[in-house]
Amino acid sequence: MIRPLKGKTPRRPAPKKPSSNQKDPVGVYCRVRPLSNEDEESCIEVISNTTIQLHAPDGIKANRNGEFKETQYSFKKVFGIKTSQRELFDDVAKPLVEDLIHGKNGLLFTYGVTGSGKTYTMTGSAGQGGLLPRSLDMIFNSIGPYQAKRFVFKTDDKNGMEIQNQVDALLERQKRDSQQSLLKTPSSKLRTDPEFSEMINPGETCKAEGVDEDSSYSVFVSYIEIYNNYIYDLLEEGPIDPIKPKPPQSKILREDQNHNMYVAGCTEVEVKSTEEAFEVFWKGQKRRRIANTQLNRESSRSHSVFIVKLAQAPLDADGDNVLQDKNQIAVSQLCLVDLAGSERTSRTRAEGNRLREAGNINQSLMTLRTCIEVLRENQMCGTNKMVPYRDSKITHLFKNYFDGEGKVRMVVCVNPNAEDYEETMLVMRFAEMTQEVEVARPVDRPICAFAAGRRQRNQAFKEELTRRLEERGGPVNGETPFVMNQLLQSFPPLPPCEITDPSDDHTLPRLIEVLEKRHRIRQMMTEEYSKTANMLKSMLQEFDSNLMAKENFIHEQRGKLGEKDKMIQSQKTEIDRLEKKSKMLEYKIDILQKTTNIYEEDKRSLQHELENREQKLQRELSEKKRMEARMQGMVTDTKLKWEKECERRVQAKQLEMQNKLWVKDEKLKQLKAIVTESKTERPEKPQRPSREKDRVPIKRSASPSPVPTAPPVRPPHRRSNSAGGERWVDHKPASNLELDTVMQPNIPNAIKVSAPNEKALSKCDKYVLTHQEVASDGEIQTKLIKGEVFKTRGGGQAVQFTDIETLKQECPVAPSRKRRSSGNDPPQTEAMDGDWTDVETRCSVAVEMRAGSNLGPGYQHHGNQKRRKP
Ligand code: ADP
Ligand code: MG
Q: How many CA atoms lie within 13 A of 747 on its CB side?
């Protein structure tokens, strides 16, 4: 018979399970319970199967902390109010149970405020079994036929597992059975607790795949409560005295040789069926209830932890017994935790002593929160801060899970009731933060060093061998076997061995000889046979070990394949998730694109409008500038025109005034002359002609002629007589301008003088003065002032003006004569200075001058110096 090589491969290389480099975030699920009453206001809306939206109820100060009125939270999965217990189990706990059966640890806890459905989710009610009964059911459905007999596996005090031999196990079973029958109380279970069969509908059971049939399994459960940071064993033996209860003894936490935490001295009950396990659970529940009532505690303030421990070890080759090798035992555990209500102390009605308790409970959840925060920070920032697991019992107990000892999952329970809004918001934040923590993925490794299904294959091999031997002709029905026959035939035949003659000494020696020969052959054959047998044996052994190695290899490959499959699966789900996300993002991008387009269009049109307006503005500006320039031009033009006009008018006025003045002066002079004549006539003294010259122009008033004034004897007026017969004194002041007119005052036979003198006057009887002045239109006009010369009674001459002829030249544009005449001034003045030296003469000349120039007498007189200057 071929046996597996017992214990040849060491079971575990190291006591501590190494964790892989891969990490998974803590799986956080959210379950929304239905409102207890339809009238209640809801503050939660399930948006998708991964997101919920929280909205502040109307009365609540939504923005007190700058919060938005609506906040969204995403989770691995969200379970709405219609989710059944079965659906939740399939998603959340089933994978953990599968892990448990494959030797991996798991931690599952419910978190939320009191009344949010934690206990409902974990335990459930009749017909609505929660995660705990369903997990137990699945475990026993999977390992049911492969369970070891009771007490084969035995827990030690140090969180380890041992195997008892058959006999010891049997003895312990017998001992326990007799004890049980004695202790058995029919009312160990409260009738109010539903039976397991009432919890889950028969059609809803499920089973794990890939259970190793060549291993033997055993399930142990323990149930603890952590209250006020003390650990109590809920499965402790011994009846509770309902009248005078002993305060329960708290337990302490210890670390085993693999650095896993365990509750020292905690009861671990080996259970063989779901019903039994559930019964134990109810027992613990009952204990918890009683203790809480007796000690006046509030159960919502405590954490309850139900631990399912699964031990498995390979069977021996016959499949009869568990291999007696401690190293071959694999132990995995699943912790199901119903946490205390997460509400703040202020929410409890507790006072005094109970307030302190509440504070402590809060503290342990606070520690959980802090641990999660530090873990997250360490992972995100690469820091190595110490995680304060030891600050509370609950975190200390599960520290290994967060250090990569197994999967961690959390179900966040929420009550949509608006009254819970603020607490729920805190729960959501904690939950979101928890998802960011990553826990190392436990390595997928074969639990047992032996190939799965080896028992079956051994059986098959045995059967085949027997069959073949039979074919060759085994010892069927006592006949000589076929091989034996052949061997016998190869021996030398026996000689006849009948002895009839006593002296026959021939037969016996021959017989002896043949027999000896046969004996030798047999010996040789035996030797040969045993040699071949040995050879065959060693060949078989070799073959066997080869087979083992192959089997191991195949097993290993299978494990790897499984690992790869899982990886592919997880990657597929990841891809799915990413695809969904990318779709959503695409959609968002689409919307943003559209919005951008709209904005861009707006921008373009606005820009266009802006440009238009700018252009318009520019146009208006240039228009304005043009207008300004035009205005400026017009203003200067008008100014110039008016200036010219003013100047011209002033000049005209001046001339007019001068003329008037001159005429008046002239008249005055004549008057004076008359007056003087009448005075001088009476003495009638002879006059010196030389003196006459000085005397005549004495008069202050200016006169064009130096003619001595005498009362004129007015002759009859001879108008326009030809100048032929008379003699003329043609008086042309030196200041007169040469005009290029066609008509020139030209009198033949005249005595031309620039200043009148007596000598000339005495020879003539007519006098003409050529006088130039500027007319009102700015043109120079020449006036010929004519007069007649009379002999005064005193013997002198006087002139009486008779008429004036005017000559005028008109140009389209009248040039300014001012300069021309003023430019000629200096020589005139000089000439006069030479001819007329005394004051009177100069004055009289000044009058004449004035007639020829534009300047007034005062100006001429006083302004000589000034006029010379240019
Ligand atoms: P917690 O343990 O968080 O304090 P419970 O589990 O005791 O809350 O739930 C409070 C009440 O709400 C219980 O009566 C329970 O039956 C009910 N409940 C909670 N969750 C649900 C659910 N998903 N569906 C129906 N009823 C629920
Ligand atoms: Mg509860």
A: 24
| Ligand approaching nearest to the C-alpha of 342 | 1
Instruction: Check whether 854 has a pLDDT greater than 60.
Output: no
Lowest mean pLDDT among 287-291, 309-313, 374-378, 454-458: 454-458
- Distance from the alpha carbon of residue 192 to the mean position of ligand 1, in angstroms: 18
DSSP state of 299: G
pLDDT of residue 312: 92
| Distance between CA atoms of residues 684 and 794, nearest Å | 7
Ligand 1 atom 22, closest CA: 33
DSSP 8-class letter at 696: G
Query: Is 80 exceeded by the pLDDT of residue 155?
Result: yes
Percent of the chain whose predicted confidence (pLDDT) is above 90: 37
Residue 116 has pLDDT above 50, yes or no: yes
Q: Hunting for tokens 């641990």 — which residue is that?
A: 371
> Cα dist. 328→325, 458, 460, 521, 653 in Å?
6, 20, 25, 51, 145
Cα 284 to Cα 196, 240, 435, 663, 676, distances in angstroms? 15, 12, 32, 153, 168
In a mutational test of the pocket of ligand 1, which residue from 29, 32, 33 has the highest number of ligand atoms less than 8 Å from its CB? 33
Task: Tell me the average pLDDT across 424-443.
Answer: 88
Pairing of strands 728-731, 766-774: parallel
Q: What is the DSSP letter of 418?
A: G
Pocket of ligand 1 (CB under 6 A): 33-34, 112, 114-120, 300, 341, 413
Q: Which of 78, 120, 121, 304 maximizes ligand 1 atoms within 8 Å of its Cβ, making it the mutation to test the pocket?
A: 120
pLDDT digits (tens, 9 = 90+) for 233-286: 999 876 666 666 666 789 999 998 888 899 999 999 999 999 999 999 999 999
In ligand 1, the atom with minimum distance to the C-alpha of 114 is 4
Average pLDDT of the residues of the chain? 78
Which of 859, 774, 789, 799 is closest to 825 using CA atoms? 859
* Strands of 75-156, DSSP E: 77-79, 105-111, 124-125, 128-129, 153-155
Q: Can you give the pLDDT at residue 570?
A: 93
Q: What is the pLDDT of residue 451?
A: 59
Q: What's the sign of the alpha-carbon dihedral 500, 504, 506, 512?
A: positive
pLDDT number for residue 591 = 92
Match 């240019």 to its residue by tokens: 870
C-alpha closest to that of 692 among 849, 798, 766, 787: 798
Ion ligand 2 neighbours, Cβ < 5 Å: 118-119
- Ligand 1 atom showing the smallest separation from residue 300 Cα: 4
- Interval 626-665: pLDDT, tens: 999 999 999 999 999 999 999 999 999 999 999 899 989 8
Which ligand neighbours the alpha carbon of 35 most closely? 1
Which residue CA neighbors atom 24 of ligand 1 most closely? 33
Which protein residue's CA is at the shortest distance from atom 19 of ligand 1?
117
Distance 732 CA to ligand 1 centre (A): 143
DSSP character at residue 818: H
CA distance 648 to 774: 10
Dist. CA 228 → ligand 1 center (Å): 23
Of 755, 729, 767, residue with least CA distance to 849: 755
Q: Give the count of alpha carbons within 13 A of 162, CB side only.
A: 10
Q: Which ligand is nearest to the CA of 110?
A: 1
Calculate how far, in angstroms, residue 408's C-alpha sits from the geometric centre of ligand 2.
20
Cα-based angle 370, 372, 373 (whole degrees, multiple of 5): 60
Q: What is the pTM of this model?
A: 0.55
Query: Which helix (H) or strand (E) covers residue 598, if one does?
Result: helix 507-681
Which comes out higher in pLDDT, residue 820 or 799? 799
Sheet of 728-731, strands arranged across: 751-753, 728-731, 766-774, 780-791, 797-808
Amino acid at residue number 839: V
